[in-house]
Amino acid sequence: MGSVRMDGRFFLILFLINCVFAKHEQYIGYTVHGVGLRNQDDIVFLTQLQVELDLDVWSVGMVGGRDASIMVKPALRDQFLNALDKRGLRHYVERDNVYRALEEFEEDFKQWRMMRSNAAAAPYDNYARYADIEAYLDRLGQEYPNIVTVVNAGNSFEGRPIKYVKISTTNFEDINKPIYFLDAAMHSREWSTTPVALYTIHRLVEDLRVEDRDLLENIDWVILPVYNPDGYEYSHTDNRMWRRSRSYNASISAECYGVDLNRNFDIFFGQISVSSNPCSDIYPGPYANSEIETQHVRDMLYQYLDRTQIYMNIHTYGSYVLYGFDNETLPSNAAQLHHVASAMGAHIDAKKLPEAVYYSVGNSAFVLYAASGTAQDYAQSIGIPFSYTLELPDFNKYHFLVPAEYIPQINGETYAGIAESARMSYQFYRHRLN
Asked: Is the CA virtual torsion 331, 222, 172, 424 positive or negative?
């Protein structure tokens, strides 16, 4: 029998095939189910079931308008469906093969990048890796030193610099200008949020148009494109559906990493929509502000507190503009909060695609669901007048796996809403000074 000679290239190919398969294989057998909602009690039921069965709630839905979307492990599927049937809830399969969906998304993204000659040059028009985002911010700081300052808020748990930009025509020294504080990618898998933050920077710095000069001249900006760089990178390299940070504490769990950063702030901590299971996607951490990423953003909020008029915490998906509080109480300026949120949503809706749902606006506990320890509630509680959670669109079908070709659409429509809310924030800030 003759021997078969296999060179290093053969083994390299086998290794790469294995790596691709291993990246998503944990989701083999996973399914996503749509669940119809009749009332708020159904939402409470689903959030309780989320904790009991360690479900991954992609979208909790909205009574009378939007169904919930829930990813389920194969081992718990029958138990989950039986619970829905027992309660009499309508349900159906939205994705019958999550593994295949992840494989197809990755392959489509690779093909899309191969077709674009300028992909690396435009991180705001791409699902860029963190190193490319850092390089983009640093380049802007070097090329536009009169208006852009790149700041390292501190390092992440794994040692990555958490960089943000300050954009100002007056070196952040004019007390008559409000600050607009915007961040993105708090939850790792929400890739479409970072291009919005980067595109906002691009429009204010590289592509400032005549009609937008007031946004630069009247307002100072703090923009953090990647709140959770460790998780963001992990979602690119190892687990596309990773949501949490990447901190590790062997005394809490020897096998599970990370914390839901939007449950980690020191407000109503550990009370609502959380799990004590350190492996859960809604694990809030061992104590409030336990995560270094939370601490950095908390310190930033206090650093710019005197002039910050709007805090915008960008997530995806669902098409919502939400405000506090999650304990079902309202801030004293709830009417103004709703007014600005409605204007923002309307400006986005004016540019939306026909297949996208219209934005819904309101208190997060009533419109979406209550959660404790959120950045939105914390920023409002320490004195930022207008604090919001913005949930971007998924075009009613893509969930977290929005194809890259939709990035320009999301950027453009969302920027219109950001611009309108910034202009309104300026007017409210002027009134605040008088």
From this structure: negative
SS (H, E, C) 326-394: CCCCCCCCHHHHHHHHHHHHHHHHCCCCCCCCCCEEEEHHHHCCCCCCCHHHHHHHCCCCEEEEEEECC
Rounded to 5 degrees, what are φ and ψ at 284?
-85, -5
Task: Please list the pLDDT of the chain residue by residue as tens digits (434 residues).
Answer: 444 444 555 445 444 444 444 689 999 999 999 999 999 899 999 999 999 999 999 999 998 889 999 999 999 999 999 999 999 999 999 999 999 999 999 999 999 988 876 545 689 999 999 999 999 999 999 999 999 999 999 999 999 999 999 999 999 999 999 999 999 999 999 999 999 999 999 999 999 999 999 999 999 999 999 999 999 999 999 999 999 999 999 999 999 999 999 999 999 999 999 999 999 999 999 999 999 999 999 999 999 999 999 999 999 999 999 999 999 999 999 999 999 999 999 999 999 999 999 999 999 999 988 999 999 999 999 999 999 999 999 887 899 999 999 999 999 999 999 999 999 999 999 988 88
Dmax of the chain from CA atoms?
Answer: 93
Residue 268 has which token pair? 């109503």
Q: Catalytic residue, from 134, 233, 291, 391: name it.
A: 391
Q: Coil, helix or strand for 133?
A: helix
Residues in the chain: 434
Say whether 391 is catalytic: yes
